[in-house]
Fold:
Amino acid sequence: MAGIEDVAKLAGVSTATVSRALSGKDHVSDRARAKVEQAAAELGYVASHSAYTLATGRNRNIGVVLPYIDRWFFSAMLESIENNLIEHGYDLTLYNLSGGEEQRAKIFNDFLLRKRVDAVLTIAVRPSAAELASLTAMKKPVIGVGGIIEGGRSLVMDDFKAGMLATQHLISLGHTRIAHVSGKPGGDKEFNQESLRHQGYLHAMKEAGLAPYPAWQGEADYTIQSAYHVTKQILGNPLDAPSAIFCNSDEMGFGTIIAVKDLGLRVPQDISVIGIDNHDMAEFFGLTTINQRVRDQGQNATNMLLALIDDPDYESKLSVEESTEWPVELLIRSSTARPAKLSQK
Structure:
């Protein structure tokens, strides 16, 4: 069986270069990496994981913790994270918190503290001070996506700004009768996302001198079906209906669009609709949205974590509190327009 020395000889490089090239390290030229990969393929050489672990104390494995795996936001981000890790020569171990507090305790107090993962990436999960302290004691860097983590690093889109921008877009078109389909309280136990987006909506309405009407406030569970039923209730009185609806997510936006059309109304001629996410199906629905660039968030968070791991002084930077703000971007499609009465003038 071929060894690392055989690969180095065939490729005409040092064994150190072979090691760096096959482990995904950046400090190798594209030409040298290609020669090493070709030589390894010709010889059938596979790098020894156990040897690498013994030599470096690393496993080239990242633990990823998230609350759900069956929702688009999480599956899209997980896809991006995994692709990026594979490109850099890392494995991924997935931890799902859908089993409740007991499962969370096992994951943070046992599984993540074992030597199988080198670092931890959390998605919409806020490690507690005790959980962070345990990971820091085991020299495992942590980066979170979705909200500010006290005592830790995070990549954050400002949900208040997102809710405000979505509402301001509708106001700028001339809408004054604006409904909001928000998330149900407690739907995001970690970062209170649904409340922050609703507060952004309320702030934009107040800033424009508009009063939110209680009958136009609905709560759904971030699914198409739930938003569909909530929207039908909001639009139930044709003599007292809004002209625009802001939804806390694109999937709820899809449910709202379907409900509007099932009531014999038109989008955007009768009702404008805006969401948040830029879901893969948003363009199909023509949905105006706040573009989270979910996959880019996953890639950037992964790059931040890998850069930290590769920092020779990373152990002294484990417990640094640092929040990187992700931009809030408006993406206009065909689901929003001026109110019909203004358009007719």
